[in-house]
Structure formats: structure tokens, C-alpha cells
């Protein structure tokens, strides 16, 4: 009982001390950070909870806590997932890690309250489990968004390659072909990534470097293969339109092979449920006769 009172006192002290410390130690900045001001000037800024003045003192404290966490693997995964998911809200790695910390604290606090309401016997187990689960929930959601976007990009890739090859065959350059695609369908997620690559080229990067950065942002093996072929054709002087057309045909062929494998595995997976259904139907049909035979009433 004394241990529970000590723990409750510590939780209450931390709950009162942290907001006061955050308000006076981490004041609200007079202006947004420079990266946010640049993004806003370019029309790419997004409204997030970090721009809300009412939450800024607490969130600044959480960001400061997140910055002190030595988690290089998690930071690298967050960076990869933010890039691959499109990062529509414009979060930085530190901000998203702060969201994970905030989620961990919130879930641990709610789990602790629930356990205290139930009796508090497992408080030392519930608090760390709640914090760990709350920390990984935003990571899981971000990874799921990344996977869904990568799948959509993979489906769109062959058609985009065909369009680029078609426009280049009409006499346009690679950059002009990409600009045509972006202008016709700016909401397409692959076109958005191509727009980023085109912006890098306009800012002075080589086409090979911009495409390499695109392959790093989107963890898609087929896209990496296409980019490697494009860079190789640039070195050898091979017509790029022909290379893109061949790559599009190869991707369609690979998609057909994958579809055949999935259909073959589906036929095997459905075999067991079909047999169970058949056995259930046989039992339903013949169960009256079986019951009568057991009771000796059949003959």
C-alpha cells in the first residue's frame, strides 16, 4: 500500500511539474522555424498540431524530450516512412518522434488511471506496457501509410513509363515529358515524386542524382530497376523512350507472373475451407439417419 501511495504521489508530481516546466523553460517561439517559413512561402506548408499556439508550450517540451532520445534506427525508419508515405502533413523526424513520445505518455497515463480504478495491483506492469504500446502505435500507422502508398505507386509505374515514352517519342525531352504528366495529373502520387525529382534537377542536381534520390525515397525494387536502366541508357547513349517502353513491358510481365502465383496459391488455400464445408453438409444431410442408426430405429 505504501508503494502505491508513493507511485501515485510521483505521478501527480510529474503531472503538475512537467506542464509548469514546459511553459517557463520552453517558451513559444516568436516565429516558426526557418524550414516552416520556407515551406509556407513555397505554398507547401501544412497545418499540424505543432502550429497550434495553445499546444505549443507542451509540444515544445515533448520535442525537446524526443531530441534527447538516442534512437538512430527508429529515426532512420521514421525518415524512410515519412518520405515514402508522402508526408502530407510536413512532419520532421523530430516532430514525429515527439508524437510517439506524446502517445506513449498519454496511453501510459490512461492505462495507469484505468488500473488504479480497478485496484492498482498491476500498476508497475501496466505503465511500461502502456508506454511501449503508445510509442509504437504512431510508428505502425506511419508504416502502414507508407506501404499503401508504395503499392499504389507500383501499380501506376508501368502506365507512367508508357506515357513518358510516348511523349518522348513525339519529340519532347525527359524533363518536358515529366512536366506534361505533372500538369495533366498533379494529384497522382508517382507524379508528385517525379515533381520532386524535377525540382532537384532545376536546382542544379544531375538527372542521375535526382533519380537516385527518388529511388531512396520510395523503397520499390521495380522503381530502382527502372532508374538503374535509365541511368545506364544515359551513359551509353541508348534512346530513353525505347528503354522506358521495354521496362514498362517487363513490369507488366512481372505483374502477370505474380498474379498467376497468387491465383495458384489461392486455389490451395481454398481447398481446406471447401472440404470443411463439404463435411458439414454431409453431416447435416445424413445426421438424422446416423442418429436413428445409433438408437436402433433405422431397421
TrEMBL record:
Main location per the UniProt record: membrane
Domain Type II secretion system protein GspF: 161-288
Keywords associated with the record: Cell membrane, Membrane, Transmembrane, Transmembrane helix
Ranges annotated as spanning the membrane: 6-28, 96-114, 120-142, 270-294
DNA-binding recorded as keyword: no
GO cellular component, one term: plasma membrane
Signal peptide positions (record): none
Topology in the lipid bilayer: Multi-pass membrane protein
Subcellular location: Cell membrane
A Pfam family that the UniProt record links to this protein: T2SSF
Protein's recorded name: Tight adherence protein C
Amino acid at each position: 500500500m505504501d508503494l502505491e501511495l508513493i507511485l501515485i504521489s510521483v505521478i501527480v508530481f510529474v503531472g503538475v511539474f512537467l506542464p509548469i516546466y514546459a511553459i517557463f523553460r520552453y517558451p513559444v517561439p516568436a516565429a516558426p522555424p526557418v524550414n516552416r517559413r520556407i515551406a509556407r512561402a513555397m505554398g507547401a506548408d501544412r497545418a499540424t498540431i505543432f502550429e497550434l499556439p495553445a499546444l505549443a508550450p507542451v509540444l515544445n517540451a515533448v520535442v525537446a524530450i524526443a531530441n534527447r532520445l538516442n534512437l538512430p534506427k527508429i529515426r532512420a525508419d521514421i525518415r524512410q516512412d515519412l518520405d515514402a508515405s508522402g508526408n502530407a502533413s510536413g512532419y520532421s523526424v523530430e516532430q514525429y518522434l515527439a508524437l510517439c513520445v506524446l502517445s506513449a505518455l498519454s496511453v501510459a497515463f490512461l492505462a495507469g488511471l484505468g488500473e488504479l480504478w480497478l485496484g492498482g495491483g498491476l500498476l508497475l506492469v501496466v505503465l511500461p506496457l502502456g508506454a511501449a504500446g503508445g510509442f509504437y502505435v504512431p510508428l505502425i500507422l506511419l508504416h502502414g501509410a507508407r506501404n499503401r502508398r508504395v503499392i499504389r505507386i507500383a501499380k501506376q509505374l508501368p502506365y507512367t513509363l508508357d506515357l513518358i515514352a510516348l511523349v518522348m517519342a513525339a519529340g519532347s525531352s525527359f524533363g518536358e515529358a515529366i512536366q506534361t504528366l505533372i500538369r495533366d495529373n498533379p494529384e497522382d502520387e508517382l507524379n508528385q515524386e517525379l515533381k520532386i525529382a524535377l525540382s532537384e534537377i532545376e536546382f542544379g542536381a544531375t538527372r542521375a542524382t535526382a533519380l537516385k534520390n527518388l529511388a531512396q525515397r520510395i523503397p520499390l525494387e521495380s522503381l530502382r530497376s527502372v532508374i538503374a536502366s535509365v541511368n545506364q541508357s544515359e551513359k551509353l547513349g541508348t534512346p530513353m523512350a525505347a528503354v522506358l517502353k521495354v521496362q514498362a513491358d517487363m513490369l507488366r510481365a512481372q505483374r502477370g507472373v505474380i498474379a498467376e502465383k497468387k491465383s495458384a496459391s489461392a486455389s490451395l488455400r481454398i481447398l481446406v475451407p471447401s472440404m470443411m464445408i463439404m463435411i458439414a453438409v454431409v453431416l447435416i444431410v445424413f445426421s438424422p439417419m446416423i442418429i436413428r442408426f445409433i438408437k436402433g430405429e433405422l431397421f
